[in-house]
Structure formats: C-alpha cells, structure tokens
Amino acid sequence: MHSIDEIIESEIKRPSVFIDESRLYPEYIPERLPHREEQIRQLTRLFKFILFKPGSTSIKALLAGPIGSGKTVTSIVFGTEFSRLAESKGIRLKYVHINCSKSKNPSGIFRELKNQLGLAVPDRGLSATELASSILKIIERDNIYVIMALDEFDYFLRSARSNERYLVVRFYDVFDVEVKRLSFIYIIRGTPVYISSLVDDLTGSYLMKNIVVFNPYKSRELYDILRDRAELAFYPGVVGDEVLEYIARLTGVDVGGDGNARKALAILHAAGKLADKEMGEGRASRVT
Ligand SMILES: Nc1ncnc2c1ncn2[C@@H]1O[C@H](COP(=O)(O)OP(=O)(O)O)[C@@H](O)[C@H]1O
Ligand SMILES: [Mg+2]
Fold first, then answer.
1. Is the predicted pLDDT of residue 283 greater than 80, yes or no?
2. Are the CB atoms for 160 and 152 separated by under 8 Å?
3. Which CATH number does 4-27+217-280 carry?
4. pLDDT, mean of residues 82-105
C-alpha cells in the first residue's frame, strides 16, 4: 500500500511527454498565428485610423468563418497587439472581448464592457441605453478609446429584438457624440452568404461593409499550426512529423475534413495524453 503523499509524489515525478500541456488547451493564446497574416493585415488597415486620427470615426469590422477557423484567437491577438502599439504612441486604447453567448442582450454586453474596463459605473436600474451613455461619459472624461469585440455575435443577432440590434450595431446613430471612442469587431460563425441571411435592413449594410473572411484550414496549414503548438507543448522529438501529417490529413478542408483547427489540436492533445499515460507505465516514449 502506498500512502497518499507517496502516490501524489510519484505522480508529480513521473516522466512526461509534455513540457507544458496547457499550451494545447483551446483557450491558450499562441504568439504566432500561421496563415492568419492576411487577416491581421486587413484588420490593421481598417483600424489604423485610431492611431492617426483617434476618435474621428467609429470603425466596424466583421469577422466571418466556420468554427475552428481562428476568428476568436485572431481577434484577441490583433486587439492585444494593436492596443499595445497604440499605448506606446500615447493613445489609451483598450481591447475588450465579449462573448455574446454569455452576454446575450445589450444590458449584458454593456455591463461586461464596463466590468472589463474597470469603470465605476453603477448599473443597477439603468437601461442599456443609459448604461452605454454613462460609459461614454467616463471614457470621454478619462480619454480612453476602446475596440470592443463581440464574439459569437450570431447568438445576439438571432435572439435580439430589432431595437436591441440597432443599439449594438448602429451605436453612433443612437449616440450623437463628436469624438467616437468606441469601435467594433463583430465575430460571426458562418459564410458571408449565411450572415447576410441573418441580418436585416437595419443592420445589413452596416455589418457587411468591412468583412474579413476566415476560410477553413487546408491540411498544409493545419500541419503548420500543429507543428508550432507541438513544439511548445511537447519535449523535442516526442511527436514525429508523421503524427502531425496524419492529423492534418484527417482534418484539412482540402481532403474532406472541415478545416477546424480546434479539432486538429484536440486530436493532438488526445494522442499526447495517451502517450503520456503509456510513458508513465514505461511502455512508450513517443506520441504515435
Ligand atoms: N492560425 C492559427 N495559429 C495557431 N493556432 C490557431 C490558429 N487558428 C486557430 N488556432 C487555434 O485553434 C483553436 C480554434 O480557434 P478559434 O479562434 O477558437 O476558432 P473560431 O473562433 O473560428 O471557432 C484555438 O485553440 C486557436 O488557438
Ligand atoms: Mg470563436
């Protein structure tokens, strides 16, 4: 019989194939985004006004693509880097990422905006419009600019009433202020055609103007993504190229898969877990 602390101790010391398993988690934000350079470039071209003429216009971008095509991670990496660059030029730009499957209505969205910005605005008893108006006053007073990404925005478009959609999509038609401190990234799962079926006259042309398309990944592209991530997560030499190529061939859109990077990484993670277990039992030293 082993004592509990012996069991824990030996599990901790057990050899592993992983340097850092968390680098395979879906929420891990990598430093590099292979094959999303063009999308980052497009976003920069749209938002660079904020650097040259902050407040002159409110920018709206729409990111569209299927699940696992890198919309969320690209928005976060772009927003984080771009606001860092702005700050280095003396512009107080904040990036805020809001998931509309959690914040389902305008009140929820603006409350989340307020919380992520750390603003001391009491929100009890305020309507969504009043709350947004208070937020605008404070960011004006504090000279703050914001890029607000609304992820899973298709949830919102499907469930919101038309006046709610109007408020969130045509924000500065509701708030007539001179300095436009709030810009938007709307993230929607689906093809541009599907999205145009989702939007109505109120929101349609507004949303469809600056569209950045995310195509499902080809197997070659998935291979590069997998290799990058494998280098971060596993010890050198434990994941052979043939494993990465195999997963890429299962999932690439050009070979009948759905081009979903999330799925490809999940398969790599599962293979790694298996090899890790076998290694602990002394039966394997590589991911196969
Ligand atoms: N180009 C890429 N480089 C590195 N990792 C990527 C890339 N595209 C997607 N991923 C990873 O794949 C997973 C799914 O991406 P995500 O941005 O959540 O897709 P979407 O929002 O389009 O469903 C995440 O773990 C993400 O980090
Ligand atoms: Mg996403």
1. no
2. no
3. 1.10.8.60
4. 97
